[in-house]
Amino acid sequence: MLAHLHPLFAATLWQHLRRMGGPGLIVLGVVDNSVIPVTGSMDVLCIWLAARHREPWPYYAFMATLGALVGGYITYALARKGGEEAMEHRLSKKKADRVKNRFARRGFLAVAIPALLPPPFPFVPFLIAAGALQYSRKKFVGALALGRGVRYCIEAFLGFHYGRHILRFFDQYYAPALAILIGLAALGSIVTLFQYFRHRKDHRAQTRTRVA
User: Fold this and answer.
1) How far is CA 60 from CA 81, 153, 169, in A?
2) In the chain, pLDDT over 70 holds for what percent of residues?
3) Residue 81: strand, helix, or coil
4) Domain extents in the chain
């Protein structure tokens, strides 16, 4: 599940999160909304838990949304403390400018819409931008809760009502499904790290040019 982990350990961690149930969604939510997200993991865990019918599906939708809020707010708060300089260190100039323009045009929807979109749409840059641009805390929390809440309600509802088919799929294709999940997380992490180090290299080059 996590990109840098050995597949056996990743599978063990995934099983542990499943056994945790709702609280596992909060733990995963903190990780998923960090600088290196675990692409698709929250969605899969929310659907799988709702399919088990151990709790009503709104419970899992709520816990997944709560996990996303906790993790998202941590990233937002760190970026808010660092300001626009922190965003420029994390994102390329092109991506930073694009995200800034979206906030200037859409505001609330610049957080709500990306939060609603399924993977592999990158969401962490919007968390960073919201904090770095000093976007209102209340509006940020409201937009994130709306976007993620709708997304996880839909997923938990589908998981609950089509659980038998979903669980049968997981039983039959558990290994390849886990491998795909690990692969997506690995790809997302590699791309994020590549962009980060490339941007750091460009930033140092620009600094040397200004000094010279």
Assistant:
1) 32, 8, 20
2) 67
3) helix
4) 7-211
